[in-house]
Structures
1.
Amino acid sequence: MRDFSNLCTVGFLARFSYALARNPVLPLFALFLGAGPEAVGLAVGISTVTGILFKLPAGALSDVVGRRRTMLAGLVVFGLMPFAYFFIDSYRALIVVRFLHGLATAIYGPVAMAVVAEVAGPRRGELLSWFSSVGIIGTLLGAPIGGLVLDVNTSGGPVLWQFRMVFALSAVSGMAALLLGLKTLGGDAPPETEHASGSGLQRFRQGIAEVLSDRRLVTASAVEGVQNMGMGALEAFLPIYAVTVVGLSEFQAGLLWGVQIIVTMLSKPLLGKMSDSRGRRGLIVAGLILCGGALGAIPFLHAFLPLLATCLVFGMGEALVTSSSAALVADMCRDRRFGSAMGAFGTIFDVGHASGPICAGLLIGWGGYQVSFPLLAVFIFLSIPVFLHNVPSHD
């Protein structure tokens, strides 16, 4: 439990650093650099594309060289990449930095989840949810703090020094995560498993084959991907909708995202424990219904309080899905190949997270918010019968 506590603390600092540089700062910074809706969606989604490319290799690598070494490699990216934002002077440079910054969560995230899944046993849903909730606290603090810095003493929108102030805070927190990780995760312990390179390559292939051959596992991963699609769309365009359409302040836009994270953070451990004892399938379906309904309603709301209530509904839906989906994948993982399995799971749901901002940007540019968000909500609803068909009730 001490190791679990250290892992949670490092995760908190890393997520806080990442959130400061992401929402609502990132879409507003892209606008500051002259990006249109489609380009804003790409800027927000590009770091998730990094996850698609590198989460599976990172998870498989941790099966070969050890969890601690791989996690420390991710923490190096958390600590150093925020400094690169100070040198951004164009939209193209922002895209490059965001792609590289995505390596932090791509490397660290699935490996840390694999560690928790290995030690949790029958409490898998509960401990994975606790670990996620601690990271969510960092995200929760990062969004409104970043928005507050952008909202201080300016007229006509944020200016460059305010963005750089947020990036400086991100750098300090990322370095703190790296230093604490070096102290508590480095140690003298050998890698968890030692394999020759041939054996490691075979394990890598087996992990991929396990995912592709198990329809239940693919579906469970894809369900979180669909939910993440909606979350990614909101992450990119809820701040812009709130500021440019509804007329809210940057700080209020950060609060909208923050309250959604609050309800997710508070609900996940209880829901994860519930999924351990009562099954994960029903919770996932309920979460998809709430996420789809909230997402479809947002562009028809034009005041702070209704938007706030709808974000709370979306946050509860997200908690229902995410408290059960990763644990469901771990339940179905054979031979304890948790690194490869969690890497594959992360790759699949990152496809959804990356496609959300990109698809929403294209749809908003074509038909506006009142067309794009309901269409994405319909896609979420259509995933429910697919999930019920492919995942049996005795999950």
Note: Residues 103 and 284 are 28 Å apart (CA to CA).
2.
Amino acid sequence: MNRLQRVPWARASTIAVVAVCVVYAPVAMTELWSYARPGAPAPGEWILGRTVSPAYVAEALRTRVAPYGRSLVPLIVHSVLGGALMLLGPVQLLSAVRRRPRLHRAAGVVFAVTVYASMAGAAVYLVRTAPEDAFSGPTFWIALATILVGTTLSVTFGILAALGRFPDLHQRWMLLCYGYLMTAPLLRLEWGALPRLLPGLSMEEINRVATMHLGSVVVFGALLASRTLDRRGRPGSGEAADPLGGAGTWVPFPALVLAHLAGGAALAWIGWSFLSWGTVGGRLLLGYLVPYAATFAVMTVRHRRAGRRGDGWAREEWRLHLTALCLAPLFSLAAAVPFDRYAGLDRPTALIAGVAIGCGVTAFAATAVVSLRVMYARELVRRAGPAFAGTRPTTVAARNEVEGVEGVWQSTP
């Protein structure tokens, strides 16, 4: 697999993701059949019942009969097409890595149409379902709605990037889109795994804990995949290929420090609030903080390593996403205000909902800023085109500046 073969952990991660997708596809496609016809095959329920207990599954299913019954056809469309997307995603990734443009393009069209159709089914369900009737209540309803919007916008921006001949941005948006889609299989995995760490909890309570961090996990995975597949940076060339165009960073050091301070203060407020709710709040806080801290640590290390090896573009991308991660708790506090005042939620539920969507939303914003950064670099190339065509740069730094900007949009995803 060319580039991925040079990074053992990336190859292992790719194999793991493909395996999860292939195994989850039939589970997704059959998940709602039993609601339409009792006794129909439901491998997901069977596996979960034997992983945890039949009572654990039965208790959760009883509460879903009425809400699902009001939107059963759209939900079946959503789940069946969602299973198809689990198979189409690996096809897209592997066809891009193996440089098979025709297959990649054809599968991409099918993928995009399937995303829109699947999300339409989910939208019908959300419109017909009151937030308090959603699994785990309004928090999960808000998280689902946010994932729906993020998935739809990501695939749309990915299409626009492809049409605009920005393959690098197309790759990033489509990976983010697939990251949002991966919340479904990862949530099922947590339904089976978390009861071992938190015994005695119902699936509804486990679902609340998982909702605290699924957004941060999937968008971080998409970022890791984007950075792994990015070919820019040429070790041994004297200076890394850099699409910054000599413009420096868009997040100067004082701004980065300010983001850390604001995010830290917001995180302390969130922690104090959650702990004041007793055992339940402490459990939710743990579900949020552990993945957040791990993500923050990896981003910080990668940002510093990129700076030490002189890879300006990698350093800038990590810096933009690190800033967004720092601001996620602040966004969560801000989002809790309208949830409290205008959505009719009590303050604890409003804050929990804000925390659930914070990392996913700010990562989307960071990807948008990265896109603007690349488009700005391409504009620099366009303006420098005539001069560059007439004379070649005479210094290593000048060559790297122009060639690095060109590499932003000439690389194939």
Note: DSSP finds 17 helices and no strands in the chain.
3.
Amino acid sequence: MIIDLTDTTSSEIASALLKARRHAGSPAMGMVGTIVVVVDEASHHDAMKAANEAGREHPSRVLVAILRPGRGAPGLDAEVRVGEGIPGEAVLLRLHGELAKVPESVITPLLLPDSPVIVWWPGGGPKVPADDPLGRLGRRRVTDAAATRRASVDFSARAEGYKPGDTDFAWTRLTPWRALMAAALDQYPTKVTGAEVAAAKGNPSADLMAAWLQSRLKVPVEQRNSRGPGVTAVRLFTPSGPIALTRPDGAVATFSVPGQPDRPVALKRRTTSELLSEELRRLDPDDVYAKTLACKVDRDQLPASEKKVDATARKSTAASATAAGKKVVAAQKPADKKSAAAKKTAAKTPAKKTASKKTAAVKKTAAKRTAAKR
């Protein structure tokens, strides 16, 4: 059911929501929270679609706010959607004129009572989300640095103004990468001498991955550009060889650990709705993200020479791999010699048997001739 409201108010929108629920035969609300989406006119359709898809796992009231500040008269237009494949409720709000400068006055009366509020800016978001009028309403504030060209500047500002509940999709995209690398060190505990992150140029997730590795491992982390898409490889250098996770095609990765065969791992790039669903699963503060942001700011101030892995670590890794290969070859040589000797013995044995048979036949013939002469 779709209800269009022109030049309306928050109370009329709330009444329309109640009317739509009764018309759909479900007057009771079964939603777990409110998702506030702050977006522009060009991308509101994709944002609403992603929020509704995430709502299949977390039924919510989705409030999409399109801010249109200008010199015109203040006004509010709304479109209420209930049912028709929407797991919760969706309201599209267009705020005009001076009203667009105070969107919290429209959004606050429409929030579900006694439930968490998640504020999401698909287009990047403010530098300090907690200081934004709508950001103050949210228990979680989700931005996306990949949607802007000033990711480094935004991260620096967000690190200084970080408040519990802040997060970014650039960090959410790293969840499977971080899980696999942490599992690798659990299964193969060893000393890490350095790390390397390869990604498309300007990828903000790569910056956060490098900062996370440096903050957790306390080793230099080098970043390299690749053709993408996104992050393509993460390598941890160890005395026994590199622990590597490489994904050149954006779908399937190869997991390599010294002394073990390579394993394929499903590591597909996730959609926006999947990223939003993950953020809706946890509403507590992300302390690891806060520490990673602080480490990234410190990395940005370091000279380029200090953000490179020492050549000694790479050489020791290569030397250890070469030494391991030589040991395998050396272990195979005695076995090869024994097998060659066994083959020669097996080849000589039939020849000896044939020679002995011929000698016996000659002796027998000679004995017969002697007996005949007598």
Note: The CA atoms of residues 70 and 353 lie 108 Å apart.
4.
Amino acid sequence: MTETADELSTPLGQKTERQKRRFRLPFTAVQALAMLLGLFLVAFLTIALFTDNPLGGEPVARVALRGPAGDDKQPAASGHTERAARSPSQQAPAGDNKGDNKTVTIIDGSSGKRQDVVIGSDAADKSGSDSAPATAMAGIDQRLLEKSRYGMIPAVADGLKPFTVYAADADRTKAAKMPVVAIVIGGLGVGAAKTTDAIMKLPPAVTLAFTPYGADPAKLTERARAQRHEILLQVPMEPFDYPDNDPGPQTLLTTLTSEQNIDRLYWHLSRFQGYAGIANFMGARFTAADTVMQPIIREAAKRGLGYLDDGSSPRSAAPSLTAAQSMPFAKADFTIDAVPTSAEIDRTLVKLETLAKERGLAVGVASALPVSIERIAAWIKTLEARGIMLVPLTTAMLKSKSG
């Protein structure tokens, strides 16, 4: 009997069982995983290269536009395209475009749920969505807008000016016959809480001045106008200690050319709409320099705006420059809360009242500090009994202009 090598090497007297050979796969587990991944990649590339669906399997929402009856032959978007191509002064008033409304059916690609939504001029005005112009919701006169590279800015059209269109209501006949006081609360727009306090706690005859900054100045100014407040735009201008004291982005500077400052002015003018005039925000150095201030005043006058000088700079060139442009103008006589305590605010209000009786007109400015709003609101309630009329700033400007 033939002996194997294993048997020859086995110790004498011991028998070993012959080991059974294990079945082995022709590849390892790692190689198998690699093969599966390769097959998946090949399948994916095949679908991507040879399938005509450009969405690649993404959920699809189908939109169907249904125009008015009898308008099937007209392209669905033609009415909207035509209106977009018109200038603001050529657009028809809201409510005249009912035939341009469309019904949009939105179909959820995953659930198949259908929802009909009406879009168009009427729907946009009522919805308050981002697609609707803020100006339409705020009652802004579309004719008094002009497009700039930053957005819409005020303009004069059809003999109308923003100063007159956006001036708050007042009994100007009565104001011409008695002492009047105008109060302007400035620095609004940054800080929704204090801005809302000024809007809601002060009577409509108080004028509110907004800076161009803040997350949504248009929304706050819209609310102010809804409460019948007259509003102004405060334009940041260079103070003497600039840049240590920086009013903010796009500040008008004495070191820039007139073209550069006008461009920055356009940025400020485009931040919101519906204001009757502008006012300086800081700017003691800028307002004192005729050469840089004159183009700003000329541009604002051309756009039908008034100008308020906050009275912080005795060397301001604004009075003479606005007079040369026949521009509505007022200069603040007192900063009511220069010392923000109840006692000092009350004392300054007495000075304002006295000046109004002596001269027939007085203008005070203040910030939206809680103590300022509280004391001014209490003081305003006593004015009528003292023979003094609280008026919006535009009324004071017109009274001053008439002598």
Note: The chain has 16 helices and 14 strands.
